[in-house]
Amino acid sequence: MDRRAIKFDWNRARAFLVTAEEGSLSAAARALDMTQPTVGRQVSALEAELGVSLFERTNSGLVLTQSGADLMVQVKTMADAATNLSRLASGHVETVEGIVCISATEMVAAFILPPIIEKLRKQWPKIEIEIIASSDTSDLSRREADIAIRNYRPTQQELIAKRVQNTLGHLYASKNYLQNLEHQLSPQDLNNETFLGVDRSNSVISYLNKFGFDLSSSNFPVIVANHLVQWQMVKHGIGIGFMMADIGDAEPLVSRVLPKFPAFETETWLVAHRELKTSRRLRVVFDYLAAELSA
């Protein structure tokens, strides 16, 4: 390798990559935890080092030049290699201390994880926990999280997955809402009722209709992407919504909409990157979560 051929600073290349991905210097500064002028200086310094213009400064913002677009492909490869290096190094750390990032849905993070994390921290006080509470899937291969709790089996070969106890759920509504229902014996009795959706797709409608419901988009006049907020809407009598049985049955303000209807069952998987599983710190948390979620 001709070391003299490398004529740029990797930190400046990273600033360029994040700026290109985020679309602006201010967004890149937030992502990198830097000030906007610092990111701007790093990008300008990289342009000077390489002797090319990476962005066109327009009234609408930064636009990649052709040289910038070509170089971004190579810098992206470098970033992936740096991520792999960090992951490999983390995988060989054997001390039971440090940060572990866990990704889970809002409801799991808010209602299921707190008692588990409380016990884990008492047993392993040097482990620091970060929680990503979102329905969006964290990219474990890019280190967006170390461990994820998901409702589907991952397909990526580099991931290790362990199936834990299936999640059981029901449809719930507030007791005030249910007072207005004359009867609720079958799915057909709910064809004119109000349901809460998570988005404008027909996925929930298609799912429910497989079980004998006959719903359309008109049954979903309220859309709430955040499950915690949606649950508050259900408790306030706005409509009918899904909830895990353990949480829904424990809430005094609501009741099951179809008490005799079988539970909706979904798989629950605990997922981690294969190389991260060699880290004792991550293995401790992974195994602890697996045991608690299967209990």
Short overview:
This protein is α/β, with parallel strands linked by helices. It has helices spanning 10-22, 25-32, 36-50, 66-91, 106-123, 175-178, 203-209, 227-235, 245-248, 280-294, and strands at 55-58, 61-64, 98-104, 127-133, 147-150, 159-174, 196-197, 222-223, 241-244, 254-256, 264-273. It is 40% helix and 21% strand.
Describe the model.
The protein is 40% helix and 21% strand. The protein is α/β, with parallel strands linked by helices and 295 residues long. Among the domains are: 3-80, Arc Repressor Mutant, subunit A; 167-266, Periplasmic binding protein-like II (D-Maltodextrin-Binding Protein, domain 2), CATH 3.40.190.10. Strands 3, 4, 5, 6, 9, 10 and 11 form a seven-stranded mixed β-sheet that branches. It has a two-stranded antiparallel ribbon with strand order 1-2. It has a two-stranded parallel sheet with strand order 7-8. The longest helix has 26 residues, at 66-91. The mean pLDDT is 86.
Q: What is the CATH top level name of the domain at 167-266?
A: Alpha Beta
> Helix/strand/pairing class, anyone?
alpha/beta
Beta-strand residue percentage: 15-25%
Radius of gyration: 24 Å
Compressed to H and E, one letter per element, the order equals: HHHEEHEHEEEHEHEHEHEEH
Number of strands: 11
Contiguous helical run count: 10
What's the CATH topology name of the domain at 167-266? D-Maltodextrin-Binding Protein, domain 2
Name a few traits of the molecule.
295 residues, alpha/beta, Arc Repressor Mutant, subunit A, D-Maltodextrin-Binding Protein, domain 2, seven-stranded mixed beta sheet, two-stranded antiparallel sheet, 11 strands, 40% helix
